[in-house]
Design goal:
Layout (H helix, E strand, L loop, with lengths): L1 H11 L6 H5 L7 H8 L5 E8 L2 E10 L15 E8 L8 H16 L4 E6 L3 H10 L2 E11 L2 E9 L9
């Protein structure tokens, strides 16, 4: 999963994030990362996409942490696509869409709606993906500290009438 995230960052964020930061991204999971995967909150789902014996993508879906604490989260709290990464060698082949579809279905089952996602401004790869899936910008913006740099992010949301595909 770490290698997928690193490869995706290097491909999607080239020119948006300092090249030295991208070059220094980890290739191996830290102990903290592994513990976090093993001790996930109840209202969080991690999915993986596989092709044969290989993991080619993953996604994490949860509640919108800006709206509620873990104790407060539940039906009626907005959901969030926390992470969705597919290895660049497998972009535009359906893995991201399949992850998104299953994550959206799970969020709806938990009552975590609407579904929101934050994207780094200028990341045209994610913008195209989420737009094709049905997300629309809602005008919310924030500055996120990413690897030591303050970078602008924009939020998009799935419209109320969006339905999970079968």
């Amino acid at each position: 999963m770490v290698q997928i995230r690193t490869a995706a960052w290097r491909a999607a964020y080239a020119g948006l994030i300092d090249a030295d930061v991208l070059a220094g991204l980890p290739e191996v999971a830290s102990e903290r990362y592994v513990r976090r995967l093993a001790d996930r909150p109840d209202l969080e789902l991690t999915l993986v996409a596989e092709k044969g014996p290989y993991v080619i993508g993953f996604a994490v879906f949860t509640w919108d942490h800006t709206e509620a604490t873990e104790e407060e989260a539940g039906p009626g709290t907005p959901g969030e696509v926390r992470m969705l990464y597919v290895h660049p060698d497998h972009w535009s082949r359906g893995a991201g869409r399949a992850l998104m579809r299953e994550g959206e279905r799970w969020l709806a089952e938990q009552g975590l709606w609407p579904v929101r996602v934050w994207e780094l401004e200028g990341n045209e790869i994610s913008r195209r993906f989420y737009t094709r899936y049905g997300f629309v910008p809602d005008g919310e913006r924030k500055t996120e500290l990413i690897s030591g740099a303050e970078l602008p992010c924009a939020r998009s949301v799935l419209p109320k009438d969006h339905r999970v595909e079968d």
